[in-house]
Amino acid sequence: MEDSATAEAPEPTSGTGDLVADLQERIGRHTQQLAEHARELHQLREDLDGLTQRLDSAS
Fold it and tell me: I need a surface site. Which of 15, 30, 53, 59 has the fewest CB within 10 A?
């Protein structure tokens, strides 16, 4: 059984240049996804902190 990282990796058609370019492209996409997730987590943390403050002040 293959894991998802292995399953989505295309076979290079010629030489290691294609493999390197493919890996760089995939790293770039994952880097962008991680940055977006970090922004979302930061916003969620701010929202949670705001809700916590509102609950604390209401009690």
Answer: 59
- Whether the full predicted model's pTM is greater than 0.85, yes or no, is no
Domain annotation covers residue 36: yes
Q: How far apart are CA 6 and CA 23, in angstroms?
A: 12
Number of folded domains in the chain? 1
Contact indicator for 12, 22 with CB cutoff of 8 Å = yes
Structural domain that includes position 56: 31-59
Q: Is residue 5 part of a domain?
A: no
Those residues whose C-beta lies under 8 Å from the C-beta of residue 22, and which sit 6 or more positions away, are 9, 10, 12
Q: Among residues 28, 30, 25, which one has the least CA distance to residue 4? A: 30
